[in-house]
Amino acid sequence: MKPVNFDYARPGDVAGALRLISDEDHTVKIMAGSQSLGPMLNMRLVQPDLVVDITGIAELRDVGDGADAIVIGACVTHADFEDLRVPDVTRGALPSVARGIAYRAVRNRGTIGGSITHADPSADWISILAAVGGKVTLQGPAGSRTVAVEDYMLGALEADLQPGEMLVSVTVPKLSASARWGYYKSCRKTGEFAHAIGSFMVDPERGVSRAVVGATESRPYVFKDARKLIGDGKSDLRLDSKLADELVEAEGMADPINRQTHVAALRRAIERAQTA
Amino acid sequence: MAEKSGKAQGVGASVLRKEDDRLLRGRGQFVADIRMAGMKDVAFVRSPLAHARLKGVQVPEEVKARVVTAADLEAVKPIRAVSGLAGFKPSDQPVLAFEKVRQVGELIAMCVADTRAEAEDIAAMVELDFEELPAVHDMLAARKPDSALLHEEWGDNVFLETFVDVNIDSALDAPIKIRRQISTARQSMAPMEGRGTVAYWDNRMEQLVLYTGSQMPHIVRTGLAECLGLQQRQIRIISPDVGGGFGYKGILLPEDICLGWYAMKCGHPVRWIEDRREHLTAGANCREHHYDITVYADRDGTLRGVDCVAHVDSGAYSSYPFSACLEAAQVASILPGPYDFPSYRCRTYSMATNKCPILPYRGVARTGVCYAIELMMDAIARECGMEPHEVRLKNLVRPEQMPFDNITKKHFDSGDYPEALRRAMAAVDLPGIRERQRQGEPDGRLIGIGHSIYCEQGAHGTSVYAGWGIPMVPGYEQATIRMTPDGGLELRIGAHSHGQSMETTLPQVAHEILGIDIDRIKLVHGDTEYTPYSTGSWGSRCAVMSGGAVATASRELAKLAKGIGAHLLQAKAEDVELVDGSVVSASGSVTLAEIAHTWYRKPQHLPVSVDTRGLEVTIGHKPVRDSGTFSYAAHVATVAVDPEMGDIEILDYVIVEDGGKLINPMVVDGQIYGGLAQGIGTALYEEMNFDASGQPLASTFADYLLPGPTEVPAPRLDHMETLAPYTEFGVKGIGEGGAIAPPAAIGNAVNDALRRYGVELLHTPMTPHRVLEAIRDAGSRPQGNAREATQKQGQGELV
After folding, report:
1. Tens digits of per-residue pLDDT, B34-51?
2. Chain B contact for A4, CB < 8 A?
3. CATH fold of B34-133+191-283
């Protein structure tokens, strides 16, 4: 379990990184925290000619404050959220979820951009960011584009990343004072990958009600208008379990036991949020 | 004995571990820490298929000099671990495969380079040509006449079949008859440190020096010598610090032989460090048992008889030295557990399959056996409408029967099994738990309580193993004791510590007899050059055997020291005593240090008649009776099962154990904690699955789950101390016990929790999915008078 021989570069700015990854003659992998890429390299599941380490790019570690959103650099670590080095605009959602990602050693190095781009269905960021309405911004030869987190993930271990493109930031909307969120994941042991995730966010002031069923076989199921499913947030939330089961089945989850645990995860996410 | 320093450090004292000073500072020396000039790294080409004819191995010309295949290994013999049991069919495990591969991960070629990464590059260049054969991946299907055959010359896939029948006919009219299919998953042993080997040829000593983390360096030397055709003086095995063994490091691996062979030719040191993928997929399998078991009982819970057909998936080859039949044949002899009943029948099959060889993991067959019989005891209790502990108390061997020869002629040396169970039950509030079950939990979970009780035969010796006829039969365990000129001590034993704390506990034994401070006593072990022969560390034997040998040697040394001391005191030898490290007469005393100084450095003061053995003794030891010590424990688990998610949480865990006299109770507690963690792994997490083509489905710890700190509760421990009648100090072997009982205790607790559904989980690990499947298959809503807390939560989808 040792990687193939590869070259290594650590550019100092995004332009430099984009130049390196535009090399079409070689296999290039971007490395951020390396918490998933590292083992994949060791097992030779990826055999790059060049690894571009982007953790030396200062702007990718910055957080920008906007009027109704913050913009988080791709290389901000899970621990940065956990330790509140990233200002919280989500009424505790992101720091709380960050605290439950894998183990502290992973959180010290693992990055939000790397996690989303790795596109593991059972990872935490994709499910909570889809609930709060997060977006990702990509830069590439054709310039910059911004897409919803749930659209960025195409499938298991597959992100909508064009040749020469890289994720540079994640935009998270500022939730209103009356917004509520919830997150529940089922793991067999602490730090293990989740087998079912439920998450939601309602923000009555902004008229938003979103629910997510994650840790599926592929992309999370994102219900962007979840008012019928969980409520609009103006009164007590309640999951319509029967509707949830139908919706999850319609998304393609055939196994009844899987549906049971995933619907239960969503319901527990709601139950846990009642007092929040 | 009074202590000189005022601080107890003899037998029974919980002194801190001497070895921790280096281990906890990260200064241990494991095989992978060894650096040698010119050392090269090895990677193996392993079979990607479980069962295939190997038609060709193509090595590119440019790397031919750095690749070894079976064709190169002239005069190297395959590994052959026979058993003397009637009908056993031996297998030849090739060092490098030729003609056929029989498991994924089987070695095909050895690649050598400056670094492991480059060796892996070379391995990737070797091309293999196969004709794939149907894989035998299911041990029950392997007995069918149309099954593919691993070893064609056998005519079937059965290493060994055994059969015992003691009067089963008289049980058949019992009013209660319960039959179940119970099984334990295949596991991987997963010590923190995997296997590893560094080998070189020492020209001066004319010796192959092989570092390998081993529980039994002397057995490795013997096996290696036989395979390589060397005299044993030509091999030196050094086992440095060992990061856990659990049985895996008691095995002679083909990798060791490859490296040994290569080191003899190549002129430089060579090493192989097993990585975790190799460990999980190719090396370290254990535990896979299947029981078709029927129990017969009276309505009052009296056990009338047990009838069982057991299969053990022994994998592709018989591993050295324990053989492929250790587990299954052991099942037949230990299935009755600590119960006294009149009728018994058991048939066992050691099955060959296209998986890596099964190896004896901590507890060996006992974990599976305990799971099977203890689940059945609870099934009887449910059938009789009794509390499970009441059924057990009715059938356990009683203290007044000791020593007791059970139905399979196991000789229980001592103990009070009912008392262990009563104490464990006294530690929990059973009526309170039953009331909570009636009330229902506020969070909708279901709680349950389960027990298990077992006996652990340890340190069984010649009389037991001679009958097995495997390559290794333990005899007299030897120890060497030697005083140093400054009055310190060196102890030398042939067994090796892979976490057992022997660097601390054996000095405690010597201290008990000689009174020398344990800081001045050094244990030398893990090196065939410096230690007497031993079968090594296995079978919970070191405290009894090595401890007994050190005690015996210490007493001999005391006699020698007293002889010299008496002369120095101008007294008769029979008039002096050894007290607190000094030889004392009526008129004066002389310290052991002064006696040592005299023997080594002032020999002019010795009498003419001095015993010329000096201050060094090598002597063998066996307990008065070598049929083994019987330690035991009662475990009581309280769990909460989430019927919606399938999660199981251990709320409380009580262990009452009896290991006889404990040399160091703190060390024993540590053994029990570690064993419990592994038992919880068996119960709830660990599972090495294979698909129908024999491919292992877990290759990293992301797929193969081990319990972590948050999954292992702090158990509540209580010790009993029934002295063993046949051993030094009354010590019993206890190292494996913690790993034996948890699957049964947790399984019974889960089944107790799920009782309202009328379902039982009978397979380890009890995963969330298996829990939910069982509830689904029950096809009924919760019954009984419990508050329907789960339904109140809107759990309409539960059917």
Report:
1. 999 999 999 999 999 999
2. yes
3. Aldehyde Oxidoreductase; domain 3 (3.90.1170)
